[in-house]
Amino acid sequence: MAKKKATTVSVKDRLRALYQLQMIDSEIDKIRIVRGELPLEIEDLEDLIAGLQTRLEKLNSELDAINHEILTKKNANLDAEALIKRYEKQLKNIKNNREFSSLTKELEYKGLEVQLNDKHISEFQAKVLHKEEVINELKSQIKDREEELNLKSKELSEIIKETEKEEKALMKKSEKAKEIIEERLLASYNRIRSKVKNGIAVVSIEREACEGYKIPPQRQIDVRTHKKIVVCEHSGKILVDASTLFD
Length: 247
What we know:
Structural class: mainly alpha
Oligomer: single chain
Distance between the termini: 26 Å
Strand content: under 5%
CATH architecture of the largest domain: Orthogonal Bundle
Helix content: over 70%
Number of strands: 5
């Protein structure tokens, strides 16, 4: 439907549409309040799980690197032990002191190399145990958070399913009410709504007051005649007189 030109619509008609828009939007707000903090909680859980997954990938990568180091040291020991056996065999056929001294030093060196590798292997294995404990704990956390996410997502899905039809109908009414409201006035309405917790941008005067603030007599007349847009000096909200707005 094409939007009517603001010049063809009276101030009273625009205020009436604005007040109706506020009533509709407040109903939409109530529906969305039913969802509570679930959307934000779900988003936080998704971010948390993503962070935990990233940490898990890093830990698994570190674990792979440690296991690779253990394998490297074990292979080095196999090579060293093979040389030790070879040198020990050569010692049986030694011909002079020089060869004996050289082989003895090689045997000592290789023996120390095996000991050092064994020490490193033990240290790496201790790191592996620690990493595996942290990884298992992290996996448990991820599983718990994923179960929580599934429950909250299911709960939100059920709430949306229950209120979706009503919300869509209200959204259509909201769009229709906007059709005769000039863009500048609508922008002011949306700006006020965004700044207040309850989303109320249009209020009806009650007992000559606006949300507890006394309204001067002349401004009360301006509000009741609906010939111009009047804003509350205290709250910054748009004022109407609902008792005469629909006359």
